[in-house]
Every structure is written in C-alpha cells, then in structure tokens.
Amino acid sequence: MKSILKRLNQEKVLVSDGAWGTFLHKRGLQPGECPELWNVTQRNDVLAIAKSYIDAGADMILTNSFGGSPVKLAHYGLKDRASELNQAAAEISRQAAGDDHYVLGNIGPTGVMLMMGQVSEQEMYDGFSIQAEALKLGGADAICIETMAALDEGILAVRAAKENTDLEVICSFTFEKTIQGDYKSMMGVSPSEMIKAIKDAGADIIGTNCGNGFDQMIPIVEEMRKADAAIPILVHANAGIPLIEEGETIFPETPEMMASKVYELINCGANIIGGCCGTTPDHIRALVKEIKKL
C-alpha cells in the first residue's frame, strides 16, 4: 500500500471506520470478557465487523486490539498472549481490507498512570512495542494510537511504534470541554500542547477521538490547525453527545446529521474522518457519500 501521507497529498480527505465495541457486544461479547480474545475464539464475528466498514466505503479500518497491551491483558490473565492477539487482530482486518484499503493497528491506553507508579516507563514502553511489532507482523499499514489523555503515555506509545516498526504513526487524544469553555484532556492537556509533544515524539498524523460529536470536534480541530498548519489531522467523532434513556446509553446523531457537518469539519482542517462510539456502517456510508460530493 502507498503511504497514507502520500495518499493524503493527492486526495486531501480519507474516510476511516466507526465503532467496534458496540458491535462486539451485539454479537455476544459479555461484560468483563476480553474483546481481544475474540480474535482467536470468535474470528468470524470480528471479521464481519471489519468487513462491514469496508463495504460501507471506508478507506481504512482499525484492528480489534484497542486493549491489547500486556498491562491491560493482565487483567484477564492474558498478558503472555499479547503478541498473538495483536497479530491476529491485524490479520483479520487485513483480510477484510484486501490490498487496496489501509489497516490501522489500534493501540489504546493501558488504563494505568505512570505518575502513580502503577507501572514503570520501561514496562509501558515494552508493552507498546510488543503491540506495534505484532500489529505490523499481522499486516497493519500504520499504527493508530488513540483515546490518550496523558502526554507521558502518548509519547511512550509513539516512540515505541516509531522505534520498533517502519510504519507511519497516528496519535489521537480525547478532549472534554471545560467550564472555561476550552478543551482539555482528562489529564489537563490542551490540543495545541498535545500537537507539539506528540509531533516531537515522532507522530506522522495527529488527531482527536471519542468524547465528542462533530459539533465539539470543530473547535478542537481549529485549535490544532492553528498550532500546526501542515500535519494531517484525524477525527473519530462519536455520534453526538451520549444521552441516558431508560438506563440505556443513546447516541443521538443519525448518519444524515453527522454527514451534514462534514464540510465544516474539513474546512477547519480535518484530513481523515471516521467515527467512534455510537457510529455504524450507515454513518460511514453517509460520510463517504457526502465527501464524494465535495
């Protein structure tokens, strides 16, 4: 596959996939069960999710490896199977993507904090390295580090991916609106602070995912673009801000509602657009249709 950066130089905007966890649960994943273990126990179900996004028109899809770090897998007694489960995740998405779509090897946060001494920097780095190497071995075209909140963890993840593979690296943080009206991660990092630190660590593409719908992503992207006029920006937005109705989490934005805002997001500087919580293949299909018009 041609590099994502070179492809963006030609096409300017690419479409990514949508939510995964929701569909794993719809297919039978139980609360407290390890999603990454399904890469070997329920392979066809994971493949069907990946294929649904390719069929919807996505240019790239993630892998079912968000919680695949040894630190996180240790909670399920699967720490020693990290390499196996990450490689299997990439192999599944590679099969769905074929030779003409990108596979983004997905790496999420470990769930522990370096500042609390819960794990050492070396242990965290080594875990991310295991993930990145296995995802490449399974066929990933790039590494996508996402849902980060702390700079130290994000920097270690980017370094591990860059130093242990030759793949392009994407890194996205999750931001929330503060009472002052600006956006910060859970650890107090602003979008502009994130860009400088993560770019210096070696990231090729930066971004923001989860926590917000397109309406909230627009000012985040605007701040990112003011901080750096050139680096490509990825946005994986929720289908709106979640609501609780009769004890169930509902994401209110329909595919048409999300697609109607995509031009504004592109105009602010987004280059890769996809979905996070609450988004479906129908959302991705609507985004593809609207972007093709533009």
Question: Tags for this entry?
Answer:
45% helix; alpha/beta; two-stranded antiparallel ribbon; globular
Summary?
45% of the residues lie in helices and 16% in strands.
Strand order of the largest sheet: 1-12-9-8-5-4-3-2
The CA-CA distance between the termini, in Å, is 25 Å
Q: What is the count of helical runs?
A: 13
Look at the structure and name the CATH superfamily. Answer: Homocysteine-binding-like domain
Rg is 17 Å
Question: SS-based structural class?
Answer: alpha/beta
Number of strands: 12
Largest sheet: 8 strands, parallel
What's the overall average pLDDT, rounded?
96
- The succession of helices and strands, N to C, reads HEHHHEHHEHEHEEEHEHEEEHHEH
Helix fraction bin: 40-55%
Regarding CATH, which class? Alpha Beta
Given the C-alpha coordinates, what overall shape results? globular
CATH topology: TIM Barrel
Please state roughly what percent of the residues sit in beta strands, choosing from under 5%, 5-15%, 15-25%, 25-35%, 35-45% or over 45%. 15-25%
The appropriate CATH architecture is: Alpha-Beta Barrel
Number of domains: 1
Low-confidence stretches: none
Please describe the topology of this protein.
Layout: H1 4-11, E1 14-15, H2 21-26, H3 38-41, H4 43-55, E2 60-62, H5 70-73, H6 82-97, E3 102-107, H7 121-137, E4 142-148, H8 151-164, E5 168-173, E6 176-177, E7 183-184, H9 191-201, E8 205-209, H10 214-227, E9 233-237, E10 243-245, E11 248-250, H11 255-259, H12 262-268, E12 272-275, H13 281-293
Parallel strand pairs: 1-12, 2-3, 3-4, 4-5, 5-8, 8-9, 9-12
Antiparallel strand pairs: 6-7, 10-11
